[in-house]
């Protein structure tokens, strides 16, 4: 399997400086103190973690469903990553995954079981095992 690479650079002090990042061939962005800690415009590492987790989870769920004979028509996942101070240090304290799938032949309860398995087994979930709270809401799309 290939090694995935990213690059980041920071210039200046934390309150007034700025940074940039790249990942893969097409992901780039900028980050500032304001975008990370005050909800200002721009990007932050927690958004990248959320995107990675939502993507990995969606792929794991699609794979789990297909392996069980239920290929998904679509899976969409949102991730919300909460950064809070813990003992004075910014810490990711919670990740909320909300997924909706269009999967012919699968009932709501069964879909939630497949989703729980995907959450437990996707590589990014396993890498983020130190996050104190990771929640999952899984529903099937209508029609």
Descriptive account of the structure:
The chain has 143 residues and is an alpha+beta fold. It folds into 2 domains: 6-37; 45-140, 2-Layer Sandwich (GMP Synthetase, Chain A, domain 3). Helices cover 33% and strands 37% of the residues. It has 4 helices and 6 strands. It has a 3-stranded antiparallel β-sheet with strand order 1-2-3. A hairpin with a 2-residue loop joins β4 (74-86) and β5. The model has no long low-confidence stretch (mean pLDDT 96).
Using brief descriptors, characterize the structure shown.
single chain, 143 residues, alpha+beta, GMP Synthetase, Chain A, domain 3, 2 domains, three-stranded mixed sheet, 4 helices
- How many strands appear in the DSSP assignment? 6
Identify the quaternary structure here: single chain
Radius of gyration: 17 Å
Shape type: elongated
List the helices and strands and how they pair.
Layout: E1 6-11, E2 18-23, E3 27-32, H1 33-37, H2 45-67, E4 74-86, E5 89-102, H3 108-121, H4 123-127, E6 133-140
Parallel strand pairs: 5-6
Antiparallel strand pairs: 1-2, 2-3, 4-5
């Amino acid at each position: 399997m290939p090694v995935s690479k990213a690059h980041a650079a920071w210039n200046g002090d934390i309150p007034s400086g700025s940074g940039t990042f790249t990942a893969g061939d097409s992901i780039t962005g900028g980050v500032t103190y304001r975008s990370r800690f005050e909800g200002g415009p721009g990007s932050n590492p927690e958004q990248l973690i959320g995107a990675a987790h939502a993507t990995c989870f969606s792929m794991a769920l699609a794979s789990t469903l297909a392996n069980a004979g239920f290929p998904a028509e679509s899976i969409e996942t949102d991730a919300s990553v909460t950064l809070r101070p813990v003992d004075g240090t910014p810490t990711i304290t919670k990740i909320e995954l909300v997924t909706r799938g269009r999967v012919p032949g699968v009932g709501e309860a069964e879909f939630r079981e497949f989703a729980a398995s995907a959450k437990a087994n996707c590589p990014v979930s396993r890498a983020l095992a130190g996050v104190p709270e990771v929640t999952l809401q899984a529903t099937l799309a209508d029609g």
